[in-house]
Amino acid sequence: MNKDILGFINSNRDLLDLIIDMVPIPLFVKDRAGRYIDCNMAFKNFLSFSREQIIGKTVYDIWSKDEADVFFYKDKELLDRGGLQIYEARITSSGGVHYDVQFHKQTFTDSSGAAIGFLGAVFDITENKRLENALVRLASTDELTGLLNRREGMARFETLHKDSERKKRPYCLAIIDLDHFKGLNDKYGHASGDLVLKAFSDLMKKILRCGDVCFRYGGEEFIVLLPETQLEEGFRVVERLRKNWAITKVALSDCQFVQSTVSIGLAQSITNNFSFDYLIQASDKALYDAKNNGRNCTACAQSRPI
């Protein structure tokens, strides 16, 4: 390279700043004390901060304590270890906009090899995260009802079962079946049946407690998991759901209204070791007891229908 050009670049900070500012990736430089000593235009624009708000400041001068703590300890880890560091975090602009980002940071050293600061690059991965989360939701959600699908629901069930066994805490499981659903489909059509399933799912989201988990088990069957719940309390919860559904009128597409009922089988976990398959079988047997008792009721496992 022409020595005159090298000399010009080395002596002309404005040109170097211009080159760095043309890079569309947000870049910054920090010293060992954690102060920002330089940044490019993309960094300022990304965070909606002025240069005066950044240079000479630390993360605690700019971000909330929760965010600043993450950045501070990551910076300390990098400076202690040296080399390259890559990690993901959430960052907030001055306007309150939240971004998912990936940091790439590399230390630079003095003549003795000690790290005296680092250069950082910020990559906006917000859209990638949004797409990832959307795919997770698609994989775990029942398309019609918006509830968890069977696979995700059973995974939550297994987790609850293991946690409850470890903590020796009770929980309940309810299997719910929409009464005479086939007849409703035959009379009004499958599109109307879908509206009924959706309406019941919406009611569950409204009536159940915030810690309860409900999912579509298959067809017109649903499962509700009630953590930290004994049979008596579980009965009160599902009965509230059953009674509310019995008086719910579902609007069909042709301006008709339809009412439906549900039968519920309820079982409580027991303290000694047992498989969660056993609890499903017990709830399923209670469900058939409820149906044999005339439907539109809740039956508890190992007890007469209530």
From TrEMBL:
Alphabetical list of CDD domains matching this protein = GGDEF, PAS
Domain GGDEF: residue ranges: 169-303
Against SMART domains, the record matches this protein to:
GGDEF, PAS
Enumerate the GO terms in the molecular function aspect. diguanylate cyclase activity
The chain positions of domain PAS read 12-82
Which cofactors does this protein require?
Mg(2+)
> What InterPro entries does this protein's entry cite?
Diguanylate_Cyclase, GGDEF_dom, Nucleotide_cyclase, PAS, PAS-assoc_C, PAS-like_dom_sf, PAS_4, Rev_trsase/Diguanyl_cyclase
Q: Which residues does the UniProt record annotate as the domain PAC? A: 85-137
Q: EC no.?
A: 2.7.7.65
Reaction(s) the record says it catalyses: 2 GTP = 3',3'-c-di-GMP + 2 diphosphate
Top EC class per UniProt? transferase
- The name on file for this protein is diguanylate cyclase
